[in-house]
Amino acid sequence: MFFESRIFRGWYIVMMLLWAALFAFLCSVPFLLDHWHYPATMILGAFIAGLTPEGGGAVAFPVLSVFFEIKREMARDFSLMIQSVGMTSASIWILTRKGNRLSTYAPVLLFVPVSLAGFVLGMTLLQAIPVHVIQALFLSLILTFALAYVSSEHRGERRLLDTKTPADLALLGAVLIAGGMCASLFGTGADIVLYTLLVTRFRMDEKVATHMSIMLMAALSILGFGYRVFWDGGITDYQVQTWLCAYPVVLLMAPLGSYILHKLHVEWMLRAVVALNLFQMAYFNLKNPSVEKIAWSIGLSVILFGVFWLSLARLSRERVVAAEKV
Prior knowledge:
Helix content: over 70%
Number of helices: 13
Distance between the termini: 39 Å
């Protein structure tokens, strides 16, 4: 059952009471009605965050940045803020579920500080990149990942992370730093690149890798949110109010996505994600079209699809070879 864990039930009740108090003091029903698109966006975004290796920002960032033309920095911050609730809620549901071994997810404790270093590095060095390039990069990232994810036979079987060589550790560290840098631009992305590495290089079980990517992005979202509040001082009252509008939606929908992941064959949902990402990419290029936008979109998509496809297809080939030897 979805609410079988006492810890998760307690978490959910406490967080809803906290939301009610914050909403009463900092927000209002008229503001919520005027900004209905924030919680509406996160109904799908949070569900995807719990169901797949893509965070809720995979929907929130392009919808806010491209469709509603909200400043890229504000769309990134909203992604971080909302994932700090939704993906944390999904993580707690996963960790308190009966039958899960907590030791399986212990490596996440080491992943987080490395990704945070990448986030800080990205906040320091990458923020001057033109907005249309960042938008093209993000849309290419989520579209090509989803295409490769759905179309390749990449299912691993290991439930524990096994790093055997210094090269494994170096690659893992580089990917985690790159993921943190992605999060500094989009508010998400660290989960996608980590998942890809776990199921290819380390041949981990798909669901375990998804759970680990969710936990990493949850922690990085909390820390990134904190960085923006306490270090940059960049979070406005308006952003807090929009966060409160979507807060109760993601608190429920993200763990619900994780619950569905355990119950259903989810290929249909993943194909819907691909269709959504294709629409987002098309809208981005058709709205105020330019040769530069199209060139960046096509070039980045080709490169990233090649990276994801080769990475995920490698696992499939290795499994076929292993089966032939048996």
